[in-house]
Amino acid sequence: MQEEKYYSVRMRAAKNGSHEQGGKHISGGEILSTFSDMRHAVNALLEKGLTHSRGKPDFMQIQFEAIDEPIKRVKPLQIESNEVESVEIGQALSWRLLEKAGIQEQIIEKAYKHMTECSGIRGALLIDVHSGERMDDRKEKGVRVSRMDWLNTNFEKWADYYNNPKNLRVKEALVLATKVSEHPATVAELCWSDDPEYITGYVASKKLGYQRITKLKEYGDERGCRIFFVDCLEDLKEYIHYLEKETILVQWEEEDDKRIN
User: Among 42, 68, 94, which residue terminates a domain?
Assistant: First the structure.
């Protein structure tokens, strides 16, 4: 039986003009949808863009395109929550986790310097784990990870099994972290949101899983961070193509089918 065709549905919203005209980034999102569910996907992204805490947009673009390439299914990263009392403690923990993932302290320090210099960047910074230098040439645009999702029914089964909240924000972050860490060139990811009302972030890698940290910035701060630490000396173009173009569908399967309910 032939698999139903999927479409990548994407949204981006800005204030004071489009992103290309220097507008302030408000919101973005993506859903993998079948054609029959297209209206629901578009409406969900429209609602997200119109109700973001960063402000009311005056520019929004929603588009979809058919996915003709094979879709790779991957298991979600294991998730662990780290409750911390302050941003200082959270940031110190993020450094320790990155070092545990195999990144040297001086490389992390250089990465933070690049992040400070590029505070308005919309996508991710790609940082070379050997030199600490930025690898991509996207300037303020950065690299945007795309073509990924987790079907709600499967996500909710996962959340029920592990007694996790059915939180859309956690779902989206875990999907992105899973796709990024799936590539062998990714050593680790550091992220926190540009949403001024959301101060939780994470460190993620194949080795560590998804390490959620409850405080990585101060409440009200609109500066976000997304850094990919990359060991990719040969084919950077292939790595960026994977992040932007190859389609990943996160799919969880219960580890123990004989579990007693």
Answer: 68
